[in-house]
Amino acid sequence: MNKRRPYVRPMDGWWRKNPYFVEYMIHEATALFVAAYAAVLLIGLLRLAQGEAAWTAWLATLQGGWAILFHLLALVAISYHTYTWFKIMPRTMPPVIVGGKKLAGWVITAGGLAAAAAASLALLALVWGMAR
Amino acid sequence: MKRPLKRSNAPIFWALFGAGGMLSALFGPMLVFITGLAIPLGLLLPADTLSYSRVLAFVQHWIGKGFVFAVIALFLWHAAHRIFHSLHDIGIHAGVGAKLLCYGLALVGTVIAGYTLLAIGF
After folding, report:
1. CA triplet A123, A36, A67: central angle to 5 degrees?
2. If you placed Cys at A27, which of A31, A80, A84, A123 could pair as Cys (CB 3.0 to 4.6 Å)?
């Protein structure tokens, strides 16, 4: 018996044809760096639990060339995640009504980015203060 | 069809995705900068910022414990959800196996982080 072979439009690389989807795939791909960085921290936590020698060795591996390169890429990727997270937030959160009017999208984005900047500075100040 | 609607588990995963996305958006870049660049390269922060005794004391405090747990666990759940849903976009049929693998890895990481933090003590 013949198998019916309907035409299936090939979907390989569909997202490369439209800049909107290229951006979408890039911002989805930032998750790979979020996962990898969480894994780095998890290994650090395990090394910490193993004692001082293991912890110091882990800190030394962070100074290696590949580790620095990875963290540079992760910094770019996760910063981009921050930007896109707040850029699409007007569409991912329920509408906010202020004074009977819907809050404009750019206000939500700007507010989110300002919160991220404040959180980053607070974290840096906290670490700096604890280290002194 | 008179069957009662099946409850979906999607909201749980979506909530974890959202919480992790928010936490990584707020603190992710600075965390990467501090632990991955500033301290290894000796920029800006004192070289002994992450000394064993200091980090141990931080992680033994319940606030530090909670922060480290939230960062590791929620970052993992965020990434697992996003990667799982992107499999379809790159032409991989994401079935039960892929779901178990993505969320399972996040769960394993969460359990290891929680267990280690408790083992380190207070």
Report:
1. 80
2. A84
The arrangement of secondary structure in A12-87, i.e. its CATH architecture, is: Up-down Bundle (1.20)
B24 closest CB neighbour out of A48, A62, A81? A81
Query: For residue B76, what are the contacts with CB-CB under 8 A and spacing of at least 6?
Result: A35, A38, B20, B105, B106, B109, B110
Q: Residue with structure tokens 């989807």?
A: A21
**ipTM metric:** 0.92
Residue B58: its chain A contacts at CB < 8 A? 130
B75 and A38 within 8 Å at the Cβ level: the answer is: yes
pLDDT digits (tens, 9 = 90+) for B53-66: 999 999 999 999 99
The parent domain of residue B97 ranges over: 13-21+51-120
Is B98 inside any structural domain? yes
Q: pLDDT per residue over B34-85, tens digit each?
A: 999 999 999 989 878 999 999 999 999 999 999 999 999 999 999 999 999 9
Instruction: Give the minimum alpha-carbon distance from A99 to chain B in angstroms, rounded to a whole number.
Output: 26
Q: Tell which residue, A66, A124, A42, has the closest CA to residue B26.
A: A124
Is B3 inside a domain boundary? no
List chain B residues with CB under 8 Å of A31: 78-79, 82-83, 86
